[in-house]
Amino acid sequence: MVELFLEGGPFMWPILLLLLGGLGLVGERAYSLNQSKSDSEGFMGALRQSLKSGGTKKALDVCTSHDGPVSNICEAGLSRVGKGSDRIEKAIENAGSLEMAFLEKNMGWLTAIIAIAPMMGFTGSVAGMIFAFDAFAAANDISPAVVAGGISQALLTTAFGLIVAMIIQVFQNYFVSRIDKLVLDMEEHSIRLVDQLYDMELTEK
Fold it and tell me: How many CB atoms neighbour CB 77 within 10 A?
């Protein structure tokens, strides 16, 4: 593998850096999304009970003791109880936007790596073909051995760039599915919270 890498020429190094950078971002996203994972159903059950038994203050304590985007959104809404339904819904909307930004952090860089890695590989391929034809012209010989090095370099850089893009693409697709699930979870439970507040008439000024 190392031998093939070295045979790929100088363009293999920036492609390798893209791979390492991409894997670093993958690790960061995996850790962050894992931290955002929470037992939302259990949390909402505890929140409903606390609202019924202890009111808003006790419900806020429940939010503070839980981690995750759902608890953060509920905390934002509950902190506006008594100031009107519009203020509550606006607070939930703003908190949801912040949580979305956190969940999607660095996803754009993964997309960039997926696009750049193959292009870098194709650029290395062009350089390899230029090298091959230069060698052919200098030797004034049609022997395959003369151009084999350049063609090999061209194929290796293309292959390596595509492999890097595919690896990062798999992780990105997984993260997108995780984020979509978390967003759906946030929307569903924020609606439940607002409905419960209306039922308990806690949104009145």
Answer: 24
Residue with the bigger pLDDT between 55 and 1: it is 55
Cα separation, 194 vs 88, in Å, equals: 8
Cα 44 from Cα 26, distance rounded (Å): 30
Predicted confidence band of residue 137 (pLDDT cuts 50, 70, 90): low
DSSP string of the chain? -HHHHHHT-TTHHHHHHHHHHHHHHHHHHHHHHHHH---HHHHHHHHHHHHHHHHHHHHHHHHHT--SHHHHHHHHHHTTTTS-HHHHHHHHHHHHHHHHHHHTTTHHHHHHHHHHHHHHHHHHHHHHHHHHHHHHHHHT---HHHHHHHHHHHHHHHHHHHHHHHHHHHHHHHHHHHHHHHHHHHHHHHHHHHHHHHHHT-S--
Q: Which residue has the tokens 């492609």?
A: 15
* CA atoms of 205 and 154, how far apart (whole Å): 71
User: How confident is the model at residue 150, as a pLDDT?
Assistant: 65
Q: How would you label 102-115 residue by residue, b for 16+ Cβ within 10 Å and e otherwise? A: ebeeeeebbeebbe
Under 8 Å CB-to-CB from 196, ≥6 apart: which residues? 48, 51
How far is residue 161's CA from residue 113's CA, in Å, rounded to a whole number?
10
Nearest-angstrom CA–CA distance, 36 and 101: 13
Total-model pTM: 0.80
